[in-house]
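Two proteins, back to back. First:
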Amino acid sequence: MKKYTTLFSITSIFVAVPIVCWLIKFHDFDLSSNSEKWADFGSFIGGTISPILAFVSFIAVMVTIKLQKDKNDLEKELIDSQGYCANAVKCLERAYGFLSDNGAATVPVKDRLVWLTTARLILQSKELASAISPKAVSSLAMYESEREYWSHRFYNLIDYTGTKSFSMDKDYFAKASRIPGDEIEERSIKVIYEFALSFDGENDPIDRVSVYSRDELDRFNVGQKGLKEYLELKIIRREERSKQ
């Protein structure tokens, strides 16, 4: 709409120029009753304004074509992004299915090929997600929420902090099967662990949420007495740490 307004303004100026020039030159003359003079005036206006209007019409058509093309390109971009998002999420689902034996295993499947396939699917998911257009806000949000969900699932499956975690056993990685020398590939370990631990990594959206203040606690319901006492202790501890 802004482009059309600008085009209309410019056109008006170009059309007005020859008319204003004519008025300046012949403003002292009365309206003529001679048809030949009116014909001359018509020829003057037609000869000066018609080319301008024709050129402006051409520009308007080109602008319309460009706007329509941009609209079509955007629609295609959004549709493609939906496809990239869906396939990226599907890769994460399959990756988790491989490593967890379709959710039946409580620890990752001890198999070199399974770890490699899982890592490849995670990398493929990242590549597909990188193709999502920045304009496809809904697709980006959908992928981010799904990535967070599956990262959490991987995090729980790996359970790297537990004292009974499979990660405590060197042979789990060094002896992936009964075949001598068959071990879990190092790069697949890195890809899977980095994806799983991204759930507990930096840029956590919850970090942008502020903690409770005393004013907020004052608005608590009577039935939240225990919760209020717990949060008051948290506030006191924060205040004590800030004084140190």
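And the second protein:
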Amino acid sequence: MSFPNAVNYGWPAGFPGSWATDNPRRLKVAGPNGFRAGAGGVTVAAFGWVQADGVSVLNSGTGAPGGFVCRTQQGVLTQYLQEASMTVPEGFMLALAEGGDVFALSTTQATSGQAVYATLATGAISTGAAGAAPTGTVETGWVVARGGAAGSPIILSGPLSATNSGN
């Protein structure tokens, strides 16, 4: 670990990908082999799409994402003396949240009540008015529960009913 070069006067409100509350949570039900990170790995705290094999998950896809890749201790440090990772290596198991409250980072300013969009190429999160998906994104069915500046932790609230029909 390198010598500390910054001092944080206050901890962030939460860590991207972790559960924000103890409200009801819902994970996407996997098949007998579970879900595994696809080719190149999967980024935690972004949306993921289950691939045609029903097992592999990638941060890119078409249509509605299968769920939000939650932080459940699956990020693995794969480089010698690596300090942090938000990537699940290829072939490792992961969980997809379909509902509940999670911490995330948005690429845009987020305001409570806004719709949450997933970038089709990366699974990255952006927010905006419902029904007005920015180019290259898809509406996820999640909403902003607590907003914040772009790049700072916000809270997303996912639907608790099985309304997401994406793979």
